[in-house]
Amino acid sequence: MKTLDIQKLLSENAYPGRGIILGKSPDGKNAVIAYFIMGRSVNSRNRVFEATADGIRTKAFDESKLSDPHLIIYSPVRVLGNKTIVTNGDQTDTIYAGMDCQQTFEQSLRCREYEDDAPNYTPRISGIVHCENGAMNYAMSILKSADGNPDSVHRFTFGYENPVNGEGHFIHTYMGDGNPLPSFEGEPEKITVENDIDVFTNVLWKNLNEDNKVSLFVRYIDLESGKATDRIVNKNK
């Protein structure tokens, strides 16, 4: 698969929607996780990321302007032992509960479908990173309608064992802007990631569409110590 330029992917797409990036730093020392949200409506744009004990949750920036918490208020990132779960919805909790009962990542998502936001039927994208004994692997999932037909659910899971240093994969909800919004197609896009969390955070944030970007979360996990370093950037301040 061709390696794509993440700066170009973001800067040339006004509305990728929500996106997940998983990978390993070029020096092989860190697992790399990034998650961003965008919005077109006042309700979607009225959000910030807030740190929790093990990850983040979305929160209304101005509670008085929150018209519908459905699909926009959730915990995108949670940690279960040596596994970090990242998703674009409340399926974070579904995966957490399933894997806590010895289900696999894929099995835990069997009870979920795309989002109930007709006519977009936004895909549910999810990722999991497993770090242990100085090594890592990760997987990504997308649950989507059949080209906009809600009568059929398409389920895809992509696994990456012993990922290559400096390599990451990017999956997002939409191919671009539109009405209805066109769902992501194909495999997660292969990209390069950075050694420095602040450099990578800046690369992502500055290339997201200025009008539509809302929040960005980046986490680097030291594969030797297991220590996580986080960055949160919110447009609303």
Outline:
The chain has 237 residues and is mainly β.
Give a short account of the largest sheet. Answer: 6 strands, antiparallel
Helix percentage: 10-25%
* CATH fold name: Glutamine Phosphoribosylpyrophosphate, subunit 1, domain 1
Please state the second-level CATH architecture.
Answer: 4-Layer Sandwich
CATH superfamily: Inosine monophosphate cyclohydrolase-like
Structural class, by secondary structure, is mainly beta
**Terminal residue distance:** 39 Å
The portion of residues forming beta strands comes to 35-45%
What does this protein look like?
By secondary structure, the chain is mostly beta strands. It has a single domain, classed as Glutamine Phosphoribosylpyrophosphate, subunit 1, domain 1. Helix content is 15%, strand content 40%. The protein has 5 helices and 13 strands. The protein has helices at residues 6-11, 42-45, 91-100, 105-108, 197-207, and strands spanning 19-24, 30-38, 47-51, 56-60, 77-80, 83-87, 124-132, 135-146, 149-161, 167-172, 189-192, 213-222, 228-234. A 6-stranded antiparallel beta sheet has the order 11-10-1-2-12-13, with helices on one face. A 5-stranded antiparallel beta sheet has the order 5-6-7-8-9, with helices on one face. The chain has a two-stranded antiparallel ribbon with strand order 3-4. The radius of gyration is 16 Å and the shape is globular. 43% of the residues are buried. The mean pLDDT is 97.
Secondary structure layout:
Layout: H1 6-11, E1 19-24, E2 30-38, H2 42-45, E3 47-51, E4 56-60, E5 77-80, E6 83-87, H3 91-100, H4 105-108, E7 124-132, E8 135-146, E9 149-161, E10 167-172, E11 189-192, H5 197-207, E12 213-222, E13 228-234
